From TrEMBL:
GO terms for molecular function: flavin adenine dinucleotide binding; glutathione-disulfide reductase (NADPH) activity. Keywords: Disulfide bond, FAD, Flavoprotein, NAD, Nucleotide-binding, Oxidoreductase, Redox-active center. Its EC number is 1.8.1.7. Its cofactor is FAD. This is Glutathione-disulfide reductase. Belongs to the class-I pyridine nucleotide-disulfide oxidoreductase family. One of its GO terms (biological process) is cellular response to oxidative stress. Transmembrane segments: none annotated. The gene is gorA. Residues 340-450 form the Pyridine nucleotide-disulphide oxidoreductase dimerisation domain. Binds 1 FAD per subunit.
Length: 457
């Protein structure tokens, strides 16, 4: 397929978006190269979704051991071996790195190791070697953003959390987004004393208001200290290596062995030569793309976290497949950004799809929105001794009867909302929910047995 170029397609970044894009394009007969500066698999595989979920499982076993007493299990409490978990995780990640390498090799993709920099609309330089390609795809993802506070050098980011040594006795987590909340939950359940320091008045901006309050209460009940409206002034290091985080708003302090900053991520665009070539960025530093992921430079495209407003692995994968279809197929595949389901792996989990109550009331006539909700103790916890509660909520448009939003806090919420997302994309109405037979006894059946709308409070 190549004309005067070395490659039909050169992808910069071997994360979720880049690997999928390179592999699919090669499978369609294109001559493809992929450049990766670190380990194949990118954020998700190496320092994101996968290690985090493995640690969330580890944390769940700890909670399960405690709860099992209510079910008759007896014996001394087991101890937790952090080094063993780290080694097992590292081995699994190495295995996945190998799987990604093999997939690319099998598809015929040329993998180039090193840092890639644009050197013109059709050229990329890696280790002083210049490669040309008809199309170039930027899939360099994002990186944690730590604001400029005094003592910033003492803070670590989510990328260092998986290999901490030793396991922290006291962990301060700065931030209130999903990564902050997940890390707080996981490390708390693994045995750390966790304090969550959040500048704003609530956790998880962008999620449904009731979900935000409910999860904060559950995390607090579990033993995580949540300090809201707590802006960090600075971090100082004690002689013993521990840290003191000070607040400018309260005069209060938080002592910790590790300070994690999880205050958001920024697209990774620095050092790529984008400005020189004329690739435009928006105010947030993301590459500006059109509906076909094309940047302001005709031959340069961007997919995944570097340009997407939804920074999730399945979205990065979907964008990659749509782009390959545009460049090497019939162009029919498009990404539908509505009703993207998502989970937060706090303990308990959050699962959500569609509009929050706040979004629904602002997008439609406020009075046309009806809320159905339930807050209950699950069957499992009737014997476990845990005080954990579940929350389910449906946001419904009265006039159309359409279910606009579905939210849940409870075990396996992510697994549960995945199926509902299909129904909601198909336009499921509340009447359809009501006539669907539940699976008993489960948590998910609550969604099809919510009969009375909430009387607005
Ligand atoms: C802690 C954490 C937990 C997460 N959990 C979830 C989750 O549960 N579910 C979910 O859907 N999403 C989750 N995410 C988000 C998810 O990881 C990202 O949305 C996804 O990885 C984006 O894929 P990407 O291909 O755009 O970028 P990345 O996966 O970041 O890949 C970019 C790659 O480009 C490489 N690179 C960068 N610059 C260059 C260069 N100049 N030359 C060569 N290579 C370069 C990088 O080394 C990297 O490998 C999580 C993220 C984090 C940080």
């Amino acid at each position: 397929m190549t004309d005067r170029h070395d490659f039909d397609l050169l992808v910069i970044g071997g994360g979720s978006a880049g690997v999928r894009c390179a592999r699919m394009a090669a499978q369609r007969g294109a001559k493809v190269a992929l450049v990766e500066a670190a380990a194949l698999g990118g954020t998700c595989v190496n320092v994101g979704c996968i290690p985090k979920k493995l640690y969330s499982y580890a944390a769940g076993y700890g909670e399960g051991f405690v709860e099992s007493a209510g079910y008759g299990w007896e014996g001394p409490p087991p101890s937790f071996n952090w080094d063993k978990l780290k080694q097992a995780r590292a081995a699994e990640i190495r295995r996945l790195n190998g799987v990604y390498g093999n997939l690319l090799k099998a598809a015929g993709v040329t993998v180039i190791e090193g840092w890639a920099k644009l050197d013109g609309p059709h050229h990329v330089v890696v280790d002083k070697k210049r490669h040309s390609a008809r199309h170039i795809v930027l899939a360099t993802g994002g990186m944690p953003h730590v604001p400029d506070v005094a003592g910033r050098e003492h803070a670590i980011t989510s990328e260092q959390m998986f290999d901490l040594a030793p396991f922290p006795k006291r962990l301060a987590v700065v931030g209130g987004g999903y990564i902050a909340c997940e890390m707080a939950s996981i490390f708390h359940a693994l045995g750390a004393e966790v304090t969550l320091l959040q500048r704003g008045g609530a956790l998880l901006a962008g999620f449904d208001g009731e979900v935000r309050r409910f999860i904060a209460s559950e995390m607090g009940k579990a033993g995580i200290e949540i300090k809201l409206n707590w802006a960090v002034e600075g971090i100082t290091r004690h002689a013993d290596g521990s840290f003191c985080v000070t607040s400018d708003s309260h005069g209060s302090i938080c002592e910790a062995d590790v300070v994690l900053y999880a205050t958001g991520r920024k697209p990774l665009t620095a050092g790529l030569g984008l400005e020189e070539v004329g690739v435009k960025l928006d105010a947030q530093g993301a590459v500006v793309v059109d509906g076909d992921y094309r940047s302001s430079v005709q031959s340069v495209y961007a997919i995944g976290d570097i340009s997407s407003s939804k920074q999730l692995t399945p979205v990065a994968l979907a964008e990659a497949m749509a782009l390959v279809d545009t460049l090497f197929g019939d162009g029919k595949r498009k990404v539908d950004y509505e009703y993207i389901p998502t989970a937060v792996f706090t303990h308990p989990n959050i699962g959500t799809v569609g509009r929050t109550e706040e979004q629904a009331r602002s997008d439609f006539d406020r009075e046309d929105i009806e809320i159905y909700r339930a807050d209950f103790r699950s069957l499992r916890h009737t014997l476990s001794g845990s005080q954990e509660r579940c929350f389910v909520k449906l946001v419904v448009q009265k006039s159309s009867d359409r279910v606009l939003g579905l939210h849940m806090v409870g075990p396996d919420a992510g697994e549960i909302v995945q199926g509902f997302a299909v129904a909601m994309r198909a336009g499921a109405t509340k009447a359809l929910f009501d006539t669907t037979i539940g699976v008993h006894p489960t948590l998910a059946e609550e969604f099809v047995t919510l009969r009375e709308p909430a009387v607005d409070d």
